[in-house]
Design goal:
This protein has 686 residues and is an alpha+beta fold. The chain is built from 28 helices and eleven strands. The protein folds into three domains: 2-87, no CATH class; 163-335, Neutral endopeptidase , domain2 (Neutral endopeptidase, domain 2, Orthogonal Bundle); 372-427 and 471-668, Collagenase (Catalytic Domain) (3-Layer(aba) Sandwich), CATH 3.40.390. Its cofactor is Zn(2+).
Length: 686
């Protein structure tokens, strides 16, 4: 047993090495070229060792497949006080290592303009002396543009000139900061070719309990002390007031996880009508005019009336000092950066990834494509295979409940659905960043100018007659479906092979990881929200009441399954919205059916669909790879917040429900009728 553990440890070290961004060669003299037969065998053995190290083979796969697949994951990858752990986090860490490597390369005359710009930005972040010297003075200077922060100015802040509505508009106009009011420029859900202004509830508001309040108060308190030099008592009191105000804002907010139909929260109206409704305290006409610098007379969407009514009350009853501290605290996080000479390169690479995610993704995509030119083509081929499989499912006579017209609409939507790897599409960076000035010696000035540019771009989006093709709204760490574009986007980090898949691994791993992940996102186009939209991203609910009734019956089957489950002793809430569970249910069936077709077409390669020291059949390897792509560990004290706020159920529950609803899983593992994952009743969407 000790020999097996030692061998596994050595092979895990090897797979960690071959996942480094340095390319195919592993440092040292073990071997120099992974394309040789010997190199490929070592890679297969390393992958086997990794998969075995996650598994608890004492668990019965037919009762607890997550435990069987991931039971030992936490032993090697346990959550810490700083972060939870998952396979995707390992991939993102590899992505960041590559970003650091690319940004550390010397500036060359052949660099494209944005590459030079981001390297200058990176250099400014490495100047730890300048960061320490200028941080507080730069922040206070920015705060004083808006009259200063009461917590900092003390008795000299009288509030005589403070106008909450004016300050909200100016923070948005100058630096793109959302404070009390959500302001978004997005395609009209009825006509995706027209941009509309949405005014109302902030999208990032979530319910907050006492434990979450305490954590947030401490976070803000430390930020006030460290960045602004406030005394502990004043920082604590200010943080408490900020968090309590946010809790009041959340009181009448709609839960996006429950109320997903845009018709339930948005009403097309004129600013003059909103001003008449909410009065002088929340004069929306004046707010928008101050923000844009001119009158705006086109229709806008009023989002969540209950939230706006609550905001009106808060503005009328909250002391100006508290309102000002709350609003201006929105600027602090942007200027907060750790200074640690021994880790500054990693810190700055991660910060640049957050500040300019589209540019960084483009750099990483080009780097990965140069290293492995075939990867993007392989992913596009896999996408086409999955689409073909789902077309067969939607066209099947088994879907008798789906009438011909809605079926034709769904097939048209599927045909038009596109796929894109983040960073892979040429973008007009000149339009996005052309006015940006970056200095290699002024990090905080660079941040300030970038925020100002983003604020200007938000205004420009409103002036555009149609939606932009830029789907970036921060770092892209997870695949997602873009409703208005009818498109699936895969993060650039998924182009890193050997984390999930590789040409020398069994194809079962590719279909069970990337196949399932893309199938999940493809299925999102047909979940309980996105089925309302047509192939052009316009809301067009044409289903008959009878068809909806059957669809909702199947959806409720999934909801009941999850509501019966517990996670770390916590009962999972029963939710109306089932988009993620529908995507799981359909996505794994798409991926498995696509792999089954591959096996049938490549029967001569069946012997290669195994891994050393692993007795699993090809079908079992498929399901094992699905589950292991979801191995994770969440610190015990963070689990209640996860259950309350995450759109996904816990991964343990997701794996259980997916396998319990898959008859082919029970057949692959020969599960008896008395086992939990071979139930008498299964739920299936489509």
């Amino acid at each position: 047993m000790d020999y097996v553990r030692a061998s596994t440890c050595c092979l895990l070290i090897l797979i960690a090495l071959i996942q480094q961004p340095s390319g195919a060669a592993v440092h040292g003299s073990v071997f120099k070229d992974l394309t040789t037969h010997q190199g490929q065998q070592i890679m297969r053995s390393a992958k086997s060792a990794q998969m075995l190290s996650f598994m608890d083979t004492d668990a019965n796969p037919c009762d607890d497949f997550y435990g069987y697949a991931c039971g030992n994951f936490a032993r090697f990858n346990g959550a810490t006080a700083e972060k939870d752990t998952s396979i995707s986090q390992d991939m993102f860490a590899g992505y960041l290592r590559r970003v650091r490597q690319l940004l550390n390369q010397p500036r060359m005359s052949t660099d494209w303009p944005m590459e030079t710009l981001v390297k200058y930005f990176y250099e400014s972040c490495l100047d730890t002396t300048s960061l320490r010297i200028h941080q507080r003075s730069r922040i206070i200077s920015v705060l004083r543009e808006f009259g200063g922060m009461p917590a900092v100015e003390g008795d000299s802040w009288t509030g005589i000139d403070f106008d909450p509505l004016e300050t909200m508009a100016q923070l948005l106009s100058r630096y793109g900061k959302l404070t009390l009011l959500g302001v978004y420029v997005s395609p009209d859900y009825k006509n995706s070719q027209i941009n509309r202004l949405y005014l109302g509830q902030r999208n990032d508001l979530v319910p907050i309990d006492e434990s979450a309040k305490l954590a947030k108060k401490l976070e803000i308190q430390m930020r006030l002390q460290n960045l602004l030099g406030l005394q502990e008592g004043r920082a604590r009191k200010t943080a408490e007031e900020i968090v309590e105000l946010e809790a009041e804002l959340s009181r009448n907010a709609q839960d996006w996880n429950q109320d997903r139909d845009p018709r339930l929260r948005n009403r097309l109206t004129l600013l003059s009508n909103m001003t008449e409704t909410y009065g002088r305290v929340l004069n929306m006409t004046r707010f928008v005019k101050t923000w844009l610098g001119h009158e705006y007379n086109l229709p806008v969407y009023e989002s969540v009336r209950s939230y706006l009514s609550q905001l009106k009350k808060i503005l009328a009853s909250t002391p100006k000092r508290i309102l000002a501290n709350y609003m201006l605290s929105s600027l602090l996080r942007d200027y907060e950066i750790q200074v640690d000479e021994s880790h500054q390169e990693a810190i700055c690479a991660e910060r640049l990834t957050v500040l300019m995610p589209d540019v960084v993704d483009h750099l990483v995509y080009n780097s990965l494509e140069q290293q492995s030119p075939h990867i993007a083509n392989d992913l596009n081929n896999l996408w086409r295979e999955l689409k073909a499989t789902f077309q067969e499912i939607l066209s099947s006579d088994d879907l008798k409940w789906l009438k011909q017209q809605p079926r034709d609409d769904l097939l048209e939507k599927l045909k038009d659905m596109s796929f894109e790897i983040a960073g892979g599409k040429p973008m007009d960076f000149e339009e996005q960043y052309g006015a940006l000035v970056i200095s290699s010696a002024d990090f905080y000035g660079n941040v300030q100018r970038l925020l100002a540019l983003q604020a200007a771009n938000l205004k420009a989006d409103l002036m555009r007659s149609s939606r932009s093709d830029n789907y970036y709204d921060g770092v892209i760490e997870s695949p997602f479906y873009v409703t208005e574009a009818n498109m699936v986007v895969l993060p650039a980090m998924y182009m890193q092979h050997r984390y999930l898949w590789d040409d020398v691994y069994p194809a079962a791993l590719k279909y069970g990881t990337l196949g399932y992940i893309l199938g999940h996102e493809l299925a999102h186009g047909f979940d309980d929200l996105n089925r309302l939209y047509d192939s052009h991203g316009n809301l067009h609910d044409s289903w008959s009441p009878d068809t909806k009734l059957i669809y909702d019956h199947d959806k409720n089957c999934l909801a009941d399954q999850l509501a019966d489950m517990r996670y770390s002793g916590l009962k999972l809430p029963k939710m109306e919205a089932q988009g993620e569970n529908i995507a799981d249910n359909v996505g794994i069936r798409i991926a498995h059916a696509t792999y089954a077709k591959w096996l049938e077409q490549h029967s001569k390669l069946k012997d290669t669909e195994t891994l050393p020291n692993m007795p699993q059949t090809p079908q079992q390897l498929f399901y094992l790879s699905v589950a292991q792509s979801m191995c994770s560990d969440i610190l015990e004290e963070r689990r209640p917040v996860f259950v309350r706020n995450s759109v996904h159920p816990p991964n343990e529950s997701r794996v259980f429900v997916m396998m319990a609803n898959s008859k082919s899983f029970a057949e692959a593992f020969q599960c008896g009728n008395e086992t939990k994952l071979n139930p008498p009743r299964r739920c299936a969407m489509y």
